[in-house]
Amino acid sequence: MPAQEGAELSREAGLRDRVWRVSPDRRFDLVLSVASELAMGLPTWSDAVITRVEGDERTSVRLPENVQALRCFYPWDSESTTVVLPRVSRSYNGTMLSFHDPSGGQETDRWDYSWLDGLAWSPAEDRLLLIGLDHCAVLGADRTSVSRSTPPRDRSGPPIGGWTPSGREYFVSVRDDGQHIGFYDADNGDLTEEATLDPVVLLPYDQERLRSQAGQLMTDSGVMSVRVEEWALKSLMHSWVSSAWDSLSQRLLLATYRPTFELTSLRGGQPAWTMSKIWIAVELVDQ
Taking a C-beta distance cutoff of 8 angstroms, is the pair 217, 247 a contact? Predict the structure, then answer.
C-alpha cells in the first residue's frame, strides 16, 4: 500500500498571506506575496522574490509578477538549479511556465501551456508534473512530454498531487469525493494503484454524540457557523478541506475539521460546538 498514516500536524499548510518554498539543498527561498486578482477573479501573486542564503549573507532577486496562485505548487527541481513559475497575463488564455536560474533570476526557458491546477518537480529526476483541468502530463529535461494521463479528476476539493520518493510514480486526487488518490507510472501514464484516504477512518470522532447535539457548529476562528446537519458533516468533517505535499519530507498533508465538544454561545444565547482544523501527515513509500 503506497500510503501510510503518519503523525498529526498542527501547522497550517494552505494558501495564506504568502507562499514560501525552499529549494531541496536549502540554499534558496522562494517567497510569493501580495495577493491580487487578474481577469475573472483569477488569484495571483504580484511579488516573487528568490533569496540566496550563504552563511550570514542573504542576496535577493525579484522575479516577474502575475504568478498564478496554485495551491498544488512545488517549483524547485531536484538539483536546486531551476525554479519554475506559472505566470498568467491578460493576453494569453492559459498558464505560461517561466523557468529561472535561481542564482541570478534570469529566465532560461518559457513554455506556453493550458490552464493548470498544480505543478510539482520530481524529487529524483529532471521531470515536471503538470496537473491540468482534465489531464496530467510529465515533462522531461528538454520540456517535451514524457507521458500523459487523464485521471477522473476530483474538482470538488483542494487539488492533491505530488511524487513518490523514487520519482517513478506520481499521484493525484481522483473521483469526486476527495478521498481517493491514484498513482500513475511517470514513464507511460498508466494507473498503477488507487488508495483510499477516508477522513473518518484516519481521524475518527464520536459522530453519534455530535448528531445528538442541538445547535450550531462553529470553527475555532469563529468565521463559520452552520447547523448540525448531514450536509455540514459531509463537507466539513467527512472531506479533506485542505491539502499540501511536503516535497522535502515526501509527506502528503491533509486537513479536516473535528469537534472539540466545547460548548459556547452565539448571539442570542444559541448553543454552538467548536470545531478545530486538524492536520495529519501521510507517508508515501514506493512499492
Answer: no
The number of domains in the chain is 2
Separation CA 174–CA 182 (nearest Å)? 6
Hey, how many other C-beta atoms are within 10 angstroms of the C-beta on 276? Answer: 13
Q: The whole model's pTM is what? A: 0.82
271-284/216-219 β-pairing: parallel
Looking at the fold, whether 24 and 68 belong to one and the same domain comes out as: yes
d(CA 98, CA 109): 6
SS3 195: strand
Helix (H) or strand (E) holding 231: helix 230-236
Domain that holds residue 143: 14-196
Count of all residues that appear for the chain in the document: 287
For residues 80-91, one letter each, b for 16 or more C-beta atoms within 10 angstroms of the residue's C-beta and e for the rest, the string is bebbbbbbbeee
CA angle 105, 106, 112 (to 5 degrees): 110
Return left, alpha or beta for 105; rule: phi > 0 is left, psi -120 to 50 is alpha, else beta: left
Element at 180 (helix H, strand E): strand 180-185
Question: pLDDT by residue (tens digit) across 221-269?
Answer: 664 556 667 777 777 888 888 888 887 787 888 889 998 877 776 666 6
Strand 242-246 to strand 251-265: parallel, antiparallel, or no bridges (unpaired)?
antiparallel
Decide if 89 is inside a domain.
Answer: yes
